[in-house]
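Cast an eye over my tokenised protein here and flag anything odd:

===
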Amino acid sequence: MRSSRWLALSFVALAAAPAVAHAQYVPPPPTVQVFVPPPPRPWRHGKVRWRHGRVAATVVVNAPPPPVWLAPAPGSPPPPPVYITPPPVVIQPHQPIYVQPQPMYVEPPVMMPPPPAVVLTPAPTVVQRPPLPQWASRFGVGASFEGVFNVAGDHHEGWGVMGQLRCRAARHFGVELMAGYERSTDKNDTTVRTDVPVIADMIIPILGPEYALSPYLVFGGGVNFADLRLLDAPTMTIDDARTQLVAQAGAGLELRLGSHFALNADARVEGRWSIEGPSDAVAATTSIDGKPVHPLEDSTALRLGLGASIYF
């Protein structure tokens, strides 16, 4: 700002310098002063004391006339140039303005308690159990040799041959169908008894087919066709033939020698009960050769068997 003012004053001085150098100064006329006397003193009459006062004189002073500048005469030489070195212009760099940021007040967040931990238990994975081993060959055909011992009744002892059909229906279930021929005598060998049993049994293996040796339980029942020969003479025979109900239960072992062959051994307790009475000839016979006649009676026997089967 000051630099600009100095520059303006310098240019004005340069422009006015020639005129000032050749101008003639005419002094202004003298100042005229006029004295005005004050008015006479006024006098007032009354009961009060006389008082008088003065009024100040009025002085009128003419204002001085402005100065008169006369132009130079024509044909006069121009004044020499006047060089004025302008002051250096200093441009002040802008000072950085620091504005202090207004403080910001932020309400602190409300601290909520953490939520309770949620433990997700994964759902149990259901894995299907692989199928258990099953019998490769289920149907079998075999035979067994048996010893028959009467433990109650007519006390006959003997032997028998039985054919058997077996089916392994499941790991722990099977069926058996047996039929055979048995021959036994009393302790004096005076009477001979023959039996043709037909029995259906249920077999429960304790262990599965992955075991070579497996125990089993057996339960069954059927019918028995019994014949007791009381007299066997060349001229005459007397037989006590009856039909009986049979029930048996026991246990055994099966030894598998490969997938198609097995050995079995078991012991069974068997009961036999007649469903009809003796014939008229037997009922009329009381003794033979002086010996009393004992017709066929209900009995309980122990059967011990050893057999083999081929499976396919």
Remarks:
- Residues 19-23, 50-58 have pLDDT under 50 and may be disordered.
- The chain is about 10% helix and 45% strand.
- The chain has two domains: 1-25+64-93, 139-311.
